[in-house]
User: Fold this.
Amino acid sequence: MQPVAALDRLGDENAFAVLARATELQQQGRSIINLGIGQPDFRTPEHIVEAAVEALRGGAHGYTQAGGVLPLREAVAADLFARHGASVSPDNILVVPGGKVTMFMAITMFGEPGTEILYPDPGFPIYRSMIEYTGATPIPVPIREENDFAFSADETLSLINERTRLLILNSPANPTGGVTQRDEITKLVNGLENHPNLAILSDEIYARMTYEGLPHTSLIEYPQIRERLILLNGWSKTWAMTGWRMGYGVWPDALVDYARKIAVNCWSCVNTAAQYAGLAALNGPQDEVDAMMAAFDERRQVITELLNQLPGVTCRTPLGAFYAFPNITGTGWKSKALASALLEEAGVATIGGPDFGVLGDGYLRLSYANSTQNIKEAISRVEAFLSEHSPR
Ligand code: PLP
Assistant:
């Protein structure tokens, strides 16, 4: 056999390896608190599950249009209008099996040898993996702690050249919890007018997850870039639906038919019952989303305070998503060594910052999608571990 060389350039998402190892240790009878994987610890709200069951019982089990059933795409469009005042045609919306799929499509549409793609570092590891797969050169946009992990418009713009085909943005951000505020986004959009051929992928999967009353500014609010903006969002995080595999992309006119063709060539359409669940999520009561966010907010404050009490650790207050990204350089430990020792020896799963890019060195990612009680127990295990072991 001779598979293509590009396969050797595909990366991975270490959060899944950590989850597998944590599960293995649990099966051996070890007590493991999982602050590794990025998924809500809540159940999908019951009315959403019911909608899927009803859809199946009612006979909605055949293929649908490749982009998703019309009522679902209309509901996404209505949601974008309600939240961001953006008028989007359902024809430009493609419902896909999970948030990642829009990323895969956008990066493969623009990446090829000789081109450059800008992506956040530290950032979601699949960006770099996919860029390398296409043969394009990945150009990291530094996401800095001193900037509260927001991206900088000036720094981003300074990295664009004639080879740059795609700019990937992510706010609220994984793994840092950073949120880029409106003024900075407006500055970026204004600067992008000097680069009219550059496509933009805005990953807004954590759009509904901001704290302290901070609004989420979506790139879809800027009409001047609409004809080259791909918006990524989905159901995984907001409605605790990671395993349903439901995401969507809003595509510009010039690309939407290519996106639809990729769907037709690969998965035909998203699981029909899941689409009806997604419809119920958008159109149904939002009180459980509000309750989840209130719980995340409380945990966010607890984990930040406790992390800052650890010797050698400092942690910015995350303003979005459900991750804390403490700086651990003062402990003397290397990030990956600490993450591995905490899992194997202290029973706490976290992810080493370097799994999110070279600028993640010196940090750990802790997901606070776990109970307050477990978070407190986990941090006290970390504290005991750090006081009993010298850095490796
Ligand atoms: N984008 C970011 C920034 C993420 O953190 C994740 C999941 O962790 C995704 C996209 C993918 O979401 P999904 O599970 O819906 O594919």
Summary: Residues 38, 98-100, 124, 170, 174, 203, 205, 234, 236, 242, 247 surround pyridoxal-5'-phosphate (CB under 6 Å). The mean pLDDT is 97. DSSP finds twelve helices and twelve strands in the chain.
